[in-house]
Design a protein that fits this description.
The complex is a heterodimer of chains A (322) and B (258).
Chain A: E1 2-6, H1 16-27, E2 37-42, H2 47-55, E3 60-64, H3 67-70, H4 74-84, E4 89-94, H5 97-110, E5 114-122, E6 125-130, E7 135-139, E8 145-150, E9 166-170, E10 183-187, H6 197-201, E11 204-208, H7 219-228, E12 231-234, H8 236-240, E13 261-265, H9 271-274, E14 282-287, H10 293-297, E15 300-303, H11 306-321
Helix pairs in contact in A: 4-5, 7-11
Chain B: E1 3-6, E2 10-11, E3 33-34, H1 37-53, E4 57-63, H2 68-76, E5 81-86, H3 95-111, E6 118-122, H4 133-141, E7 145-149, E8 151-154, E9 159-166, E10 169-176, E11 179-183, H5 195-203, E12 206-210, E13 220-224, E14 234-238, H6 243-253
Parallel strand pairs in B: 1-4, 1-6, 4-5, 5-12, 6-11, 7-11
Antiparallel strand pairs in B: 2-3, 8-9, 9-10
Helix pairs in contact in B: 2-5, 3-4
The chains are: A alpha/beta (322), B alpha/beta (258).
Bound molecules: flavin-adenine dinucleotide (FAD) and adenosine monophosphate.
Chain lengths: 322, 258
């Protein structure tokens, strides 16, 4: 049996990353010893999420809702998952911060090992991303229960013949000790400086790196962002120098993005940066250095000074618009 | 507040990586070494907090003898002293082993009269990215633990208020000490070493332990590099003259706002 921790968004829809995890569990059922697919939803279970879980092939839904689980506490949520986890099989989540944290607690509490950022499973064991995606580690967890998280975009969500999932309702009470680390309050970002949602959801992202030259060098790239209705993403050099906020950083320790197009301006293409843009459909580089990794890895490139090139691109867009 | 920060020596890779002869590790012979950005932020938070509360910062690493470089670098930016747990082949240690060995050293220090109010780690190591050592260490010590924390501040008594970015905004936690906190890059800017810092780093006091043989071990069987997919880049041109060709591509993808 496989138990998947399912995250839902503000409107109660199943998160895309959780749909990926459910698909991974279903399509690898044989090697994960998970012929029965279970989903755990903590908090509200909407009609729409229920239907989504059905088309994703879920056999059974555990709906966990209680006063103790209302505010997030990793230990209380993890224990609730442990209580419904199978003895043999797999417990998994997508590799979001919450998924990582919960699975690590589940692993310790069940006395098992855990594999983070798994991308594939076969008879030889698991394959997972390491070094920010620059390499893959093959490993065997051993144990009765495999605890793992799935790397983002490792698996495309796939619908199947809809099931009629049985719903099991639980209202767990948590041990006082497990409530020590619950969220006291949440501040919804009014400060755009901390909001990464624009970046992770944009269809077009313009990337800016050291090549921009200074804090005042973002004029052209920001205008291009505006023409594309997209978002600005930057390299760590840019955030490190304090030119732009960390919420705009793309890469291993920033956001991982999946736009239709990423236009990297003055970014060399260090592996830690590339880790964040693997999910981009089309990659365009604007760089003075034809030999740079970014140009070599791009689908399209323009060799030249980014200020001149992006300035000319903006002008061209304005003139075509008439 | 006395704070322990656990940092890990990792190869500083930017370009192509190659595997070593064993096929289970990368070849780091020609590479420099560093620590992860999350851990640099943890060190910065520790220095700020110790300064504000009148405490001390100790940095710890489990790794080869050379990892003393990373401890000295942390002293160079303001940590007070370091602990090296020497392990010739630290790659043979699994997350359970690392947590256990660090836990043992912390208990040894407690017996010697040194109490850490707070143990900071990075959210995930930049090389292995296991996302587990902080949580396993917390269970080993019997302390509460938070992960993905970007900033925190003393909140009176043995309590800190910690902040991290959650799925729907900034989440605030009230954490009773002693505790373990895994830090996520983004809340503070790590400082650069000063000249006096560099001098201090050279003379830093580094306590040494020898790691026992790993118990659980590392579940790794091997390491693989992604297939070298030959990429064909289409050069649209040089300089501003190529702008039209780029706009054509963007129009084709359909991302230009009308
Ligand atoms: C543990 C760890 C985690 C990291 N995490 C991240 C991360 O999340 N995200 C990230 O981005 N980095 C990360 N890094 C840093 C990474 O290794 C690189 O240092 C960084 O990505 C380089 O940024 P850059 O490309 O802007 O700068 P550089 O590497 O300096 O490249 C600048 C580029 O701009 C070009 N250029 C210069 N002038 C112009 C001009 N006028 N017009 C056009 N092109 C020009 C140059 O040819 C060059 O290619 C991490 C590093 C470590 C060790
Ligand atoms: N060998 C080590 N020595 C010191 N700290 C470590 C070591 N390995 C991991 N850590 C700490 O634990 C964090 C998370 O590591 P991991 O669970 O391996 O992703 C790292 O960012 C470090 O702060």
């Amino acid at each position: 049996m496989s138990l998947v921790f399912v995250e839902t968004d503000e409107s109660g829809e199943v998160a895309l990353t959780s749909a990926e995890a459910l698909t991974f569990a279903r399509t690898n059922a044989d090697v994960l010893a998970g012929s029965v697919l279970e989903a755990a939803v903590i908090g509200t279970l909407t009609e729409s999420a229920h239907n989504q879980l059905a088309v994703l092939g879920v056999d059974r839904i555990h709906h966990l809702e209680s006063a103790d689980l209302e505010a997030y506490s990793a230990t209380a949520w993890a224990q609730a998952l442990v209580d419904i986890a199978p003895e043999t099989g797999t417990v998994l989540a997508s590799g979001t911060p919450r998924g990582m944290e919960l699975m690590a607690h589940v692993a310790v509490r069940t006395g098992e090992r855990m594999a983070a950022n798994v991308v594939a499973a076969d008879e030889e064991g698991l394959l997972r991303q390491v070094l920010g995606g620059a390499a893959f580690e093959r490993l065997q967890l051993g144990g009765d229960l495999q605890v793992l998280t799935l790397a983002g975009h490792a698996c495309k969500p796939e619908e199947t013949t809809p099931t009629t999932p049985e719903i099991l309702t639980h209202s767990p009470e948590s041990a006082a000790e497990d409530l020590r680390t619950r969220v006291v309050r949440t501040e919804v970002e009014t400060d755009a400086d901390n909001d990464t949602s624009g970046l992770t959801q944009a269809r077009a992202v313009v990337g800016a790196g050291r090549g921009v030259g200074s804090e005042n060098g973002f004029g052209e790239v920001l205008e291009l962002v505006d023409h594309l209705g997209g978002a600005l993403g930057v390299s760590r050099v840019v955030t490190g120098l304090g030119w732009r906020p960390h919420s705009e950083q793309v890469g291993q320790t920033g956001s991982r993005i999946t736009p239709d197009v990423y236009i990297a301006c003055g970014i060399s293409g260090a592996i830690q940066h590339m880790a964040g843009i693997e999910g981009a459909k089309t990659l365009i580089a604007i760089n003075t250095d034809e030999e740079s990794t970014m140009v070599q890895r791009a689908d399209y490139a323009i060799i030249g000074d980014l200020h001149e090139v992006v300035g000319a691109v903006n002008e061209e867009i304005r003139s075509r618009r008439g | 507040m006395d704070i322990l920060v656990c940092i890990k020596r990792i190869p500083d890779i930017a370009g192509q990586i190659t595997l070593d002869g064993s096929g289970t590790d990368i070849d780091d012979a020609g590479l420099g070494h560093t620590t992860s950005a999350h851990e640099e932020c943890a060190v910065e938070l520790a220095i700020q907090t110790a300064a504000a509360t009148g405490g001390k910062v100790t940095v710890l690493t489990l790794g080869p003898a050379e990892a003393v470089e990373q401890l000295r670098a942390a002293v160079g930016v303001g940590a007070n002293d370091g602990i090296l747990i020497e392990a010739e082949d630290s790659g043979a240690f699994g997350t359970e082993d690392i947590a256990q060995v660090i836990g043992d050293v912390i208990r040894d220090r407690t017996e010697g009269g040194q109490n850490f109010d707070l143990v900071l780690l990075g959210n995930d190591a930049a090389d292995t990215g296991d996302f587990q050592v902080p949580i396993r260490l917390a269970y080993d010590l019997g302390y509460p633990v938070l992960t993905s924390i970007s900033t925190f501040s003393p909140a009176g008594g043995p309590v800190i208020e910690a902040r991290g970015i959650g799925p729907s905004g900034t989440e605030i936690f009230s954490l009773e000490l002693p505790a373990v906190v895994a830090v996520q890059e983004g809340g503070v800017d790590p400082r650069y070493p000063s000249i006096t810092g560099r001098m201090k780093a050279k003379k830093a006091r580094i306590a040494e332990y020898v790691a026992p043989e790993p118990g659980a071990g590392n579940p790794r069987i091997g390491l693989e590099l992604p297939p070298d997919t030959a990429n064909e880049v289409t050069i649209l041109g040089e300089g501003p003259d190529a702008a039209g060709a780029l706009v054509d591509v963007l129009e084709e993808i359909g991302v230009i706002r009308s």
